[in-house]
C-alpha cells in the first residue's frame, strides 16, 4: 500500500513512517544514502532471507551476531544490489519476496554461481 504525505510519496514500511527518526533525519533533509537489497542463505540453494538496509556491512554484522533478526545469524550474504534511493530498494524487496525460489536462484547464480559468502568482499 502506498500513501502520500506532503510532497513525498511513501511506500508503507516501518522505517518510512512519518513519525520515525529515520524519516526525518534522512528523507526530509534529502540525505538519502540509498539502499541495499540483499539475500542471505544458509547453504547452496537452501533457505534464503531477503532484506533491505541503508548500511549493508552493519546489517549483515547484526544478523551474524544475533541482533535484529536472529533467523539468519548463520547465513552467508550471497547477493546484494545497491539503489540510489532507499524507497526503490524497499519496493524491489517487496517484489523479490513474491518471486519463486527458482527465480531467486537464477538471480544469485548470475552474480555468484558458487554462492560464496560476499560479506568479506565488501570494501
From TrEMBL:
Membership in a protein family: Belongs to the UPF0213 family.
Keywords assigned by UniProt, alphabetized: Endonuclease, Hydrolase, Nuclease
Keyword Cell membrane: no
Taxonomic classification: Bacteria, Pseudomonadati, Pseudomonadota, Alphaproteobacteria, Sphingomonadales
Tagged with keyword rRNA-binding: no
Species name: Hephaestia caeni
Molecular function (Gene Ontology), one example: endonuclease activity
Protein known as: Putative endonuclease
PROSITE patterns hit by this protein: GIY_YIG
InterPro entries in the cross-refs: GIY-YIG_endonuc, GIY-YIG_endonuc_sf, UPF0213_domain
Span of domain GIY-YIG: 33-107
Pfam families in alphabetical order: GIY-YIG
CDD domains per UniProt: GIY-YIG_unchar_3
Amino acid at each position: 500500500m502506498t500513501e502520500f504525505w506532503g510532497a513525498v510519496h511513501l511506500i508503507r514500511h516501518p522505517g518510512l513512517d512519518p513519525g520515525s527518526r529515520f524519516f526525518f533525519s534522512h528523507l526530509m533533509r534529502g540525505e538519502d544514502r540509498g539502499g541495499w537489497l540483499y539475500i542471505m542463505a544458509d547453504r547452496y540453494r537452501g533457505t534464503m532471507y531477503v532484506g533491505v538496509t541503508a548500511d549493508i556491512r552493519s546489517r549483515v554484522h547484526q544478523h551474524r551476531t544475533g541482533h535484529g533478526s536472529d533467523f539468519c545469524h548463520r547465513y552467508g550474504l550471497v547477493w546484494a544490489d545497491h539503489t540510489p534511493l532507499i524507497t526503490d530498494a524497499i519496493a524491489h524487496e517487496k517484489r523479490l519476496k513474491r518471486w519463486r525460489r527458482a527465480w531467486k536462484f537464477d538471480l544469485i547464480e548470475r552474480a555468484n554461481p558458487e554462492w560464496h559468502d560476499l560479506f568479506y568482499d565488501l570494501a
